[in-house]
Amino acid sequence: MYDFSYHKPSSVSDAVAALQAAEDGTVMAGGMTLIPTMKQRLAQPSDVIDLGGIGELKGITVSGGTVTIGAMTTHATVAASAEVKGAIPALAHLAGHIGDAQVRNRGTIGGSIANNDPTACYPSACLALGATIKTDRREIPASEFFAGMFTTALEEGEMVVSVSFPVPEKAAYMKFPNPASRYALVGVFAAKTSGGARVAVTGAGENGVFRAADLEAALSSNFSSDAIKGVAVSADGLNSDIHATAAYRAHLIGVMARRAVDAANA
What we know:
The protein has 266 residues and is α+β, with helices and mostly antiparallel strands. The chain has 11 helices and 14 strands. The chain is globular and about 55 Å long.
């Protein structure tokens, strides 16, 4: 690990100021990705701005059909939240199955979506539910936020402050996890909304999370697993690695989608 300057601000404005003053600074949420990459010397920021001391970035509110979660809210907090379980139980279920207990108690929703790991779970919920990501500068629709593997619409020095999820009519998330890391080989978040069905897939795409248009079209007229049994998922553009071929991932997308719809309808 290279030398760096450590900062622990107590407000968003202080964090932004520290980041702007740094030569090559970065913010740290839970540190699930940043710390390992720094230890391996794959990253060498001049300054690390730890967001852990900023109370305004933590918490969950439910109001007007929207669930808003502060960026520094941990996965464990979301999973245990009575408010989230009451409004969007699929979101609490998703959070409760991220990694292991250590990861769930350190990792945060803001860190997850800002990192945009192609196998992360939260990006699928953001896309499927039509979430809005609020930063210290603006509000970004999820459809415009995820720009590719480990890439987002965040500009240099821009920080995620919160994520707002519209409450769907029904929804569920199902994933086929890697047994060692518990990352999704394939994860599917299916939601029935007032605007139709939305299906987002993580863990499978070469460019990260994406929406499955053919599955959405079939489910919008009939939100049941029977409606998508005959929908063929193409392997084009899907990952193929030591864990699973693109063809196998294409098969899993269909399986996980049907399971998610069945769970949503249960």
